[in-house]
Amino acid sequence: MNHRMTGRHRQEALPVGRACTPGFISVLICAASAAAHLMTFAQPTFAQAPLAQEPPARRTELVGTAPPPAQIFKIFQFPADKIPRIDGDPGDWAIVPESYSIGLDQMHDDEHKHAKPDPKDLDVHVKVGWVKGLNRLYFLYEAYDNYWDFSDPGLHNDTFEIVVDGDRSGGPLIPQFRNNADQDTWDAHFSMHGVQAQNYHIMTPAEGKDWALAWGCQPWDKELPYANHAQSYSFRPGQAGKYVLEFYITPFDYAGCEGPQRAVESQLLENKIIGLSWAVIDYDGNQKNNGFWNLSPEHTMYGNASFLNEFRLMPLEPQFQKSIDARWSFKILDMDRRLVAFQDESIGKITSWKWEFGDGSSSSDQHPLHSYAKAGQYVVVLSVEGHAGRSRMSKIWDVTLR
């Protein structure tokens, strides 16, 4: 794909010979495969709205009967005491196993300018991480290029383009693929562009320009506290060299144009599968790019989240897990009755539980309900035992009732 927002009219045709994807308007899309549509972002008004795509066909089979994806990639869980520092130094990532690394050999140039990767021309390795309790995705991007192209102040720049769909709801995220074909393009931009899934064009490197284009109507999502970045390199434009970029982003289920005050962060949970993909756009001094290396098998993943890869938020690797560790949470079900539900979240193979509720009462249930007789602040203790030993967790005055 030629870069989509250069201020010059660019053709973008569906690859010749590609079968029409189920869920698209077959007649229109097949016609579009022979006649490219035009788009521009530099003009004050959009060109005539391109043909809209239908959402992917709704799955009607029972859960669990669909064929498994070709591959589910892994997102490494950093221990809470080993969160990577965003400083451009990859040292914090040394604990991440190589099985989490995704290289250019797992991607393809879907513009067919290169039959296979040539590490002497371009070599890329990406690792993705997360931290339980934080709705952030951490990235380490390491690349070698024989010609780094980053002198232009505009969008012409070697680029790491990522698209994330935190709840894997799928569907279009740019106006060109909107479901409502009769909607004005600018209305679509301000109502749905980047709202339910986000696209970031990250400049590699960024020099004299912002580090990323948040392609949508929410530029605030590339700034602190939702994102941060640091890069390291020593080459100049046109030279070869190695580039290191560390950054994190926050995925959103809703990121409206009105600003972060109504935004809804995606909840990142252990073993959850999210939608994520990326492309590496390499220019090598050409007016048009010299390669669009895509992790997704679908070229248009940049604007349709249904074509993103599946990534699993992994548990801690075994070497970072405690053999036994008491953990728990609670929820006040009824303040008038002072009814509290306690949830055991202990780690390890637990054989017995002892809850002390702070009012003289106790329970050996794993997930007890308890009703307090009086208002007050309570020290609640959970003690667990298992084959690996014992563990205790006390919380002081977290449980406070009126």
- Assign the CATH topology of the largest domain: Immunoglobulin-like
Highest CATH level, the class of the largest domain: Mainly Beta
Total of helices: 2
Rg measurement, Å: 25 Å
Largest sheet: number of strands, sense, barrel closure: 13 strands, mixed
In total, how many domains does the architecture comprise?
2
Q: State the shape.
A: elongated
One letter per element, helices H and strands E, the order comes to: EHEEEEEEEHEEEEEEEEEEEEEEEE
CATH architecture level-2 label of the largest domain: Sandwich
| Spans of at least 5 consecutive residues with low confidence | 1-67
State the helicity in percent bands: under 10%
Structural class: mainly beta
Q: What's the total count of β strands?
A: 24
- The separation of the N and C termini measures 62 Å
Fraction of residues in β-strands: 25-35%
Mean pLDDT: 87
Signal peptide: 1-47
InterPro entries: Ig-like_fold (IPR013783), PKD/Chitinase_dom (IPR022409), PKD_dom (IPR000601), PKD_dom_sf (IPR035986)
Protein name: PKD domain-containing protein
Keywords: Signal
Summarize this structure briefly.
This protein has helices at 26-32, 185-192, and strands spanning 10-12, 37-39, 72-77, 102-103, 108-109, 122-130, 137-145, 159-165, 198-203, 212-214, 228-232, 241-249, 252-254, 264-265, 273-281, 292-294, 309-313, 328-334, 339-344, 350-356, 362-363, 369-371, 376-386, 389-401.
